[in-house]
């Protein structure tokens, strides 16, 4: 059976990062559910912190660097996506938004996406519904019902008998795994011979 592809986008700015920690827990929960369903998965983790300069350059030049192109291709070719951002001023971070701004706006059509966010207080949790969910709805992704927010007090709290962070992570991972398991694995895009990429065509038009 062909292996599924899971792209995990984390927009944390610090190291260590609670945003990356939440992304890792969601990845683990999703992977466990897929393993139980007999669907092997390959995970491609994308740290936007490492691509910040590349994203900014791409926005003003239209030319992605090789690492950024690899990240964009990983998201576009994934069978499922986990997208996690810190919340700044009641919304997603600028770095997070900029990455999805440079992604082709048809790349996530029909792709299952699990959205999650971190913040210092639970008051920021509404950003999942008023900012992240509309963003991925616009990109025509299939957003799983359970969105996961982790405030500072959530870490280490809760157990299997309560509605703590571990329960929400497990539920969201199960929902994403269910959607991914019901999809045929994404096939690698065939390379077109003799086709000059649009970026190269633009470069050829520039005065030397």
From TrEMBL:
<protein>
    <submittedName>
        <fullName>FMN reductase</fullName>
    </submittedName>
</protein>
<dbReference type="InterPro" id="IPR023932">
    <property type="entry name" value="CE1759_FMN_reduct"/>
</dbReference>
<dbReference type="InterPro" id="IPR051814">
    <property type="entry name" value="NAD(P)H-dep_FMN_reductase"/>
</dbReference>
<dbReference type="Pfam" id="PF03358">
    <property type="entry name" value="FMN_red"/>
</dbReference>
<keyword id="KW-0285">Flavoprotein</keyword>
<keyword id="KW-0288">FMN</keyword>
<feature type="domain" description="NADPH-dependent FMN reductase-like">
    <location>
        <begin position="5"/>
        <end position="155"/>
    </location>
</feature>
<keyword id="KW-0560">Oxidoreductase</keyword>
<dbReference type="InterPro" id="IPR005025">
    <property type="entry name" value="FMN_Rdtase-like_dom"/>
</dbReference>
<dbReference type="InterPro" id="IPR029039">
    <property type="entry name" value="Flavoprotein-like_sf"/>
</dbReference>
